[in-house]
Amino acid sequence: MDQWIKVLVVEDEDVLRKGLILTTAWDKINAKVIGEADNGSDGYSLALRLQPDLIVTDVAMPGMDGLEMIKALVEKLTDIEFIIISGHAEFEYAQQALELGVKGYILKPIDPTKFFEVLQKTVKDLQDRKKSQKEFFELEQLREQIKFFSPIQRSKPTDYRDQYIESALNLIEERYNQAISLGDFAEALGISERTLSSLFKERTGYTFLEYVTLYRMRIAAELLQQKDIRVQEVAPLVGYRDYRYFIKIFKSCFDLTPLEYKKGHTPQ
Predict the structure, then answer these.
(1) 160-263, what's its fold?
(2) In whole numbers, what is the pLDDT of the chain averaged over residues?
(3) Domain ranges of the chain
(4) pLDDT in tens, 228-238
(5) Which candidate, 15, 50, 13, places its Cα nearest to that of 32?
(6) CA 148 to chain CA centroid, nearest Å
(7) What's the predicted TM-score (pTM) here?
(8) What is the pLDDT of residue 222?
(9) Given this chain, do its domains 5-132 and 160-263 carry the same CATH topology?
(10) Residues 114-161: tens digit of each pLDDT
(11) Vertex 261: Cα angle to 258 and 265 (nearest 5)
(12) Are 37 and 12 in contact (CB under 8 A)?
């Protein structure tokens, strides 16, 4: 499931603010309101404290207005997004909002359908960004692990748990160039995914996915050093049907694209 997107609503009209909070189908798009404020100053303070992903805000409010609040917050919270709702149709407001990177500019009276469309698109963009950030973090971890990775040295199994891991490692070596999933391996071994996942981490020090990925990358590196194999041929040989994704994973591990790696290891 996508991560929940945290929303802060800043609007000085109590009826409108409460209406947006209570009547919008936030749960349908995996979003939830974590706070509300009736002016820009309180909205600014709440945002710094609650760290929302998205702020839905009016423009004209007493004290600090919506645009002033946005200008102050973009310097503090770099990943935050904004949707403006306003009774001001003047071009200057829309222009300033666009310059600040505001995702949507909705005029009052609010069209619920239009508002939800803008909200849905903004939430989707935020979820995609969070996913990319999570993938980047995981890829950075792979880069550190590849430095020390080598296939597990085999020893005679001493109990049934070692036998499961031995069988799993054999399957990885046999099928690394095919689609691999923890569920398929667990089914082949006759145990649950949870049991295999726990045993694999305990016995190898890697998660199942980490080991498969690093094993494939080691094989890919060896293949790229062979003069007669083209870069584009390597991805499917190590189980990746998506060439662009293969490049992304390889670069995360070696800090080089497959082509750069090959150029550094084979005569041109």
Answers:
(1) Arc Repressor Mutant, subunit A (1.10.10)
(2) 87
(3) 5-132, 160-263
(4) 899 889 999 99
(5) 50
(6) 26
(7) 0.55
(8) 92
(9) no
(10) 999 999 999 998 888 887 677 667 767 777 788 778 787 666 666 777
(11) 135
(12) no
